[in-house]
Amino acid sequence: MDEFMDIFTLVTGIIYLVLEIRQKNFMWVVGIITGAAASAVFLFRGLYASMALNIYYVLVSFWGLYCWRRDSGMAEAGAADAASSGNDKIHINRLPLKTVLISLGIFLACVFPAIFFLKSIDDPMPVLDASVTVASAIATYWLSRSYLEQWLLWIAVDFGTAVLCFCASQNWMALLYLVYSLSAIYGYSHWKRGGVVV
User: Fold this and answer.
1) Phi/psi at 149 (nearest 5 deg)?
2) Which of 32, 38, 53, 55 is nearest to 170 (CA)?
């Protein structure tokens, strides 16, 4: 059953990734399914921060769907020529310096208590688990706001999560996050080339 859940999460995760790169709103629906499956996988492996993160993914998917639908409408209004030609455009919001500083503050304020907590419940890799979890929460918020720079966070976070999964003998999940990390490089380039700043 564990291997089935790992493979299921891998397949839905890849679908999610393709939809994310193409900036399709249905990505958030697939994200709910993938997040729920990954939560179960991490629970069985005792990686509680990663489990909690995937529960967060499920919840934030509703917010992300709302934001993306709203922003895509604004992008269409701002790029009438693209809309009239039928081309899909990627809407990108500018990342304010204030958001970067707040995000850094949140990371620092959350990662150390998370490490302490994970050590207390015998998480096998508390520092890496806490770090990728907190950074992923920030990257997911940035994704929901369509900041181009969210891809840069995902490159590092997904690689770190791949290492975490590999060390926990979750080979299918390690493969999924390695694919995520490599695809984030493409996602950054794709969004940068095809984006409309709103």
Assistant:
1) -65, -10
2) 38
